[in-house]
Amino acid sequence: MKKKIVLAATVLLFGLKAVGQVKKHWNIVHANEIAMDLSKEENIPYSDNIEMAGKRVAGIISYEINEDKELSISREIFFPQLRTYIKTNDAEWKHYRAYFKDIYSDAILPSIIQNNKIYAPGKVSKVHINGMLQFVHEPVGGVALTRTFFPSMSERLFVEQWTLTNTSEQEVNMLGRTNSREKRLQGVKGEYTASVKSNIKKEINIPPGGSYTFSIGISATLNKESEINIQGDEYYKERLEFLRKMKTSLTLETPNQSLNTLFEFSKIRASESIFESKLGLLHSPGGGRYYVGFWANDQAEYVNPFFPYLGYDLGNDAAMNMYDLYDKETNKEYSNIRYSFEIEGDAPINPLDRGDAAMIAYGAAQYALASGDRDTAEKLWPLISWCLEYNHRQLNEAGVVASESDEMEGRIETGNANLSTSSLYYGALNLARDLSRSLGKPRSLEAKYRQQAKQISKAIEVYFGATIEGLDTYKYYKEHQNLRHWICLPLVVQLFDRKDDTTKALFEKLWSENGVHVEKNDQNKKISEIFWDRGTLYALRGTFLAGATEESIQKLTQFTDQRLLGSRVPYVVEAYPEGNMAHLSAESGLYCRVFTEGMFGIVPTGLKSFECTPRLPKEWEHMSLKNIKAFGEDFNIEVKRSGKKLMVYFTDNRTNKVVKRRIAEGKKIAFEF
């Protein structure tokens, strides 16, 4: 219990520091790695944490480096599929977070004896993040140490790998002693055993310049499952193979290394949080709270539509599994669809309507088009059409969609009809119109969706269009008088009538060092402190689409430097103060979509067609997206400055065929395979 209290205090402290003055602690090694140099005084003391995950495990590694460069590590390891019982006096909500988990300090580490003394790691000289977390220690007694943390991608196992290197001119002889331990627990699925094991040798002999590597594994088994063997380096190779897949697909190249690197990191975080479950593969947010479950916003809307562009097979499998599960929840009565499947679907259904049918329709229609696959699109069509009809039946007397809440789930007021739900419905209608044409549906259906989109567009303008805080933008709900982050959504779905003042509202009124705040002028000061990165990422996608290229690249660069090189790295986060800026997975998908759909302006118009409106910042000469897997293809988009115009090159990587287009800045290109 004491360990948990200490950890909570550390996280809270970290959260408070995160909203203060930010400075760069990290530097970019290359597009797939950042490092922190502890020889620089401004980098110590330092503390942070990072989440990593595989199909059966998640780990949040918290680390703290003091002024003497001494490192302390706390390992919070989750085995999400293994649910535990709660106590009779626990609150009922604890059922939802009752994962088999524990926090492990350095007390689990094996003992290493050198010259009749216990080897203690030296001062930390560098920290590296590259899809794994790595600490480099200075030599002690002629022995340097590198510690690398990573999850197994397939087993209930989290690994800490030690590499001891002899920096002296004589052979080093050491003795290794394991510190194995077990914890047994009767859980919902049977008997759970959490084990800490090491494959360290009893006698270690390292020649000059040589190295010796061993691992410490934290694992779990259910009932009579065999113990997980960590003798070789198969789990390290497994993680490297996952990272290789991320590196070789959907690569961003710009003159700004920070953007390139956070894009690379975001592919990792967006893709690793996929878990096995009795429902099949499930993409889950993570963050120490949300595993083996999914939500209409995080998965259906935010991250699933990204996977066709990345071409990640597990991501696409999890996306289709989730949409299929939602399709089974549709009903002839058109009562609202559940907003989440928690605890592998065993959690009670929450009846709250957050506008989830709009989220699902918008995300599923994007996914279907970007998949480029007719069979996939046909499977998704019943869900998309049901969600659109549900929204149509929810239109109020003003012609906008009524809903009880939005994805904030009542944290702050949303009225009886909010801008988010109606905007997503409008976007979904336009996508469904193009999808119906691609699938050869009756032309009357295409005309119906076009007309309904026209009607909701007018209703959004009349009902939500307003002068708020002196700007010609939108109110979030009928009675609302403050600017809110989701005023960006009309821009995202290409409603541009109020784009200029909406951009000003986002970048001048709502912006802070942590991006767009939910609100800034609320009478409740606590609300004015709140930021959710998803709002910032949607805002940036929308402002690029709206043509505010220079303002957008300035804000995107500032925000990226903060999340990649500042005090809370290396991913975008969920929120503050809620969750203490947890590394939720789907937000990383949204970061990548700032580029695919925002800066490059890719908007699907059919299963094999899209529009592209590239936004090349004036100080850049070029930018490219390579190995795009959307529409069932493998292609590159390269944009180069050509005098006052832009040259856009579309390259089919399977045939090496290149299509060139010379366009004026801000012009749209229609492309069909």
Automatic annotation (TrEMBL):
In terms of InterPro entries, this protein maps to:
6-hairpin_glycosidase_sf, 6hp_glycosidase-like_sf
Organism annotation:
Arenibacter aquaticus
Task: Specify the protein name.
Answer: Six-hairpin glycosidase-like protein
A molecular-function term among this protein's GO annotations:
hydrolase activity, acting on glycosyl bonds
BP term (GO), one: carbohydrate metabolic process
Q: Which superkingdom, per the lineage? A: Bacteria
Which keywords does UniProt give here? Answer: Glycosidase, Hydrolase
